[in-house]
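Suppose you are handed a protein chain with no further information: no name, no annotation, nothing but its sequence. What can you learn? This example shows the usual starting point.
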Amino acid sequence: MMVYCRKVVINKPECLSLKGPVLFAANHPNSFLDGIIMTTLMEEQLYSLARGDAFARKTVGNILRRMFLLPVYRTNEGKENLSQNYTTFEACQQVFATNGIVLIFSEGGSANEWHLRPLRKGTARLTTSTWEKGINLIIIPLGINYNAFRLFGKNVHINFGEPLNKQLIIEQETYGKQLLAFNEQLESQLRQLVYEVEPGNKAKLKSLFYVPLPMFKKIILAIPAFIGAILHLPLYISVKAVASLFSNDHYDSLVVALLMVEYPFYWLLIALLCTNFLGWIFALIIALSMPFCAWAYVQLKRQI
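A reasonable first move is to predict its three-dimensional structure. Written in structure tokens, the prediction is:
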């Protein structure tokens, strides 16, 4: 995370060490990168709900489940699949019953924008059905905010809200009104946690996210950053080319995921080449310094 995120600001760090049963109800601006970041930050194991069509192939689905991902289906993925959400709800409730933590994206889909979109009813349905089983589930709103969606090395703001008021929800006369009361509470908090920025408003983005770097630090990091840029350029160019072939809303997530998978092999390749041409001592120095040089470059590159 120190490389693919330049700076992570968390308004309530104590939430990272929470014990369950907890449901984090979040916005969803940056595809599966949102889940990667939260999984990395949390001290306890975090289960995340992910789009159901990714589980279409049995082998892939089994792998995703081993990565603590659970499928959730939307209407546009086929109405015939919606009934499978009950199985996912049951899986979530098993997690809650053992004091686990689940992350759900309450907008129902992902879009690269600084804007809270309308909330779906899935979060409310999961919560009320869990309460009906006697599990005292706590729901915490979560706002995830990025400085940019196509720049590697993010400035990320993680904003946790206050637990929703269960009593105000369950005292409603009908099930429909309970769902409405739930979403009203959740939306009210998320609007305070999710930044609203018009497209192209770089001045506001800078005021929210920019991290100033002291001149002495720029001088110290200049040479390692240059070396890091040169050493990692072939890998980064190839990863960007592959990620660009897919939907823009998944670009950031694909870049980070591909780098995570490919970097160990790239690091080994550079080490072997350096051993062959420079000797093992220089190869060892370069191999050990590569991650630091990558971090130095991320610190100096543009932020907005």
